Amino acid sequence: MGIAVVAGLGIFVFALLLVGSIGEPRDELQRLSVSDVLDGAPADRFGTQELHVYGWYAELDADCDTAGQLPALTVPWMERVCPLRVLMPYQPTLDVTQADLLAAGLRLAAPNGKPFPSRATPGGPNLRLEQLVYVGHFDDPAAQQCAPQLVDLCRSLFVVSDYTGLIR
């Protein structure tokens, strides 16, 4: 009798797992890689939908190039070049340049600048030894207030609300 009860519970648990695994996960639970996001125009593809994007975080601060920065920024937190914060599809090297990060990475920003890891060292690149998951969106309403030549750049900026180091 006891064996039959244990076997019945096992079959019941198996049936629950089987039924629960049918179908796709909800959109808000799906995570996208940086490569998936950068494939095309992210602002047009995702709009303001909240996304969970994972990749390797990199930040350049004192050593990033500010030559292309406009003298009068209309939306500073979106248009500012330094510190340059990006999410990369691969772990960047210690000698990574701003051009490398901009070419292969997804630019990150936040209105208050807080949802980012603290700097590991005062100078040079700020790299993490693990992939991080960032929660945020593209096509922020503030992008329309950017300087006219920067509106597209501001729309494709990933506006971060939170992050976690727990990718799995």
* Shape, per Cα inertia axes: elongated
Strand order of the largest sheet: 2-3-4-7-6
Report the count of strand segments. Answer: 7
Number of domains: 1
Radius of gyration: 21 Å
In whole angstroms, the N-to-C terminal distance is: 40 Å
Tally of helical runs: 6
Helix content: 25-40%
**Unreliable runs:** none
Q: Would you list the SSEs in sequence order as H and E?
A: HEHHEHEHEEEHE
Largest sheet: 5 strands, mixed, barrel
Percent strand equals 15-25%
Molecular structure report:
- The protein is α+β, with helices and mostly antiparallel strands and about 170 residues long.
- The protein has 6 helices and 7 strands, in the order αβααβαβαβββαβ.
- It is elongated and about 80 Å long.
- The two termini are about 40 Å apart.
Topology at a glance:
Blueprint: H1 2-20, E1 31-33, H2 34-38, H3 42-46, E2 51-60, H4 76-79, E3 84-88, H5 98-104, E4 106-109, E5 126-127, E6 132-137, H6 151-155, E7 158-164
Parallel strand pairs: 1-2, 4-7
Antiparallel strand pairs: 2-3, 2-5, 2-6, 3-4, 6-7
Q: Would you summarize the structure shown here?
A:
The protein is α+β, with helices and mostly antiparallel strands and 168 residues long. It has helices at residues 2-20, 34-38, 42-46, 76-79, 98-104, 151-155; strands at residues 31-33, 51-60, 84-88, 106-109, 126-127, 132-137, 158-164.
